[in-house]
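Can't paste images in this forum, so I'm doing it all in text. The chain is below; anyone willing to post the predicted structure tokens underneath?
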Amino acid sequence: MYKNFSSTLKIGFVGALFMLASCSKHLHVQQTKPQHYAITDNAVDSQLIKTIQPYKQSLDAKMHEVIGTAPVALTKKTPESNLGNFFAEAVFARVKRLPNVDTANTFAMFNNGGLRTSVPQGDIMVGSMYELMPFENKLVVVPLSGERLLKLLDFIAEKDGAPVAGIRFNIADKKAKDITINGKAFDVTKNYYVATSDYLAGGGDKFFTTDENKDMLKTEILLRDILIDYCKQMSKQNKPVIANTDGRIQYAK
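Text version of the structure:
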């Protein structure tokens, strides 16, 4: 659950201000004036508390905003998990709204390591999404040849799976087999597109090489914001946030 900032008041002032600014489009800094406070191991100075309090209250209200409901806890595991499916499906739904994207040959793929925590059963708050995705990672779409995509999928198979949407395959001997993309059999002679994070596209966790992102579609859309918006949309439709496992990645029998 979202953690109250009070316990880290002395060291969290700068971080709190940053997060507050990032989650509200209506707050603007009109004027800045440096102020210095001596922080010791003793009680926090009352003037510091007075200065921080308005920002803390606004931040707490924002982080505690309920944006959806999870009937069951969303947790991470391999080769597939309801948490990974929730994340990938939310992003894939947003990808389909991007202009000039060949969605028939596009799928979403991320890394398990990027999901930093579980989503508990019950109310989903904005703060839950900040805990799940604390990084400022953005959505990108990377074009790949069929041959290069197969190598990527084999890499995912070696890692025992990853959060995906729009693609299905089996893992056999650490290789990807029986691959379908949006219901169609994978064709190694075709070109495909992978919706992912700018961190992975830039070489993070070795999913991609840095020379493969030259022609990628960059967006300024934060993955965290996609998750928040997705939960809000489900809530508006009176739908719970459900992401069942469906065998999109499984070990070959």
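The helical segments are 13-22, 46-63, 82-95, 126-132, 146-158, 198-201, 223-236. The first helix runs from residue 13 to 22.
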